[in-house]
Amino acid sequence: MLLAVIVPTLVLAAGLCLMRRACHRQEHIACRGCGYDLTGSPDSARCPECGRELDEAAIEPAGEIAVTWWLFWTGFMLVLGAALVLVPLIVYWAFRVL
């Protein structure tokens, strides 16, 4: 029975860690398309990694908060799944004690 709480709690913690890891402050200028670090790259019109045309909208400035969306949503789904398991267990145990 204790295992039914420990496993979802660990999944919840892992999901929260992934969500936190997904949001980070950009230390260098980067391409918005692929995240390639453009520091030291020659001033060209295209990203050397993905070939995206670099204009003001395509460059992520240093100091801006960047989000790795697939990592964020993976963490969110883990949190949601763990909550769907933990909430009924907690409600069940709360009414069982009363």
List the helices and strands and how they pair.
Layout: H1 3-22, E1 23-25, E2 30-31, E3 59-60, E4 65-67, H2 69-97
Antiparallel strand pairs: 1-4, 2-3
Helix pairs in contact: 1-2
Structural features, described:
It is a single chain. The protein is mostly helical and 98 residues long. It has two domains: 1-24 and 67-98; 27-62, no CATH class. 50% of the residues lie in helices and 10% in strands. It has two helices and four strands. It has helices spanning 3-22, 69-97; strands at 23-25, 30-31, 59-60, 65-67. Strands 1-4 form a two-stranded antiparallel sheet. A two-stranded antiparallel ribbon has the order 2-3. Helix 1 packs antiparallel against helix 2 (69-97). The protein is rod-shaped, with a radius of gyration of 21 Å. 8% of the residues are buried. The mean pLDDT is 85.
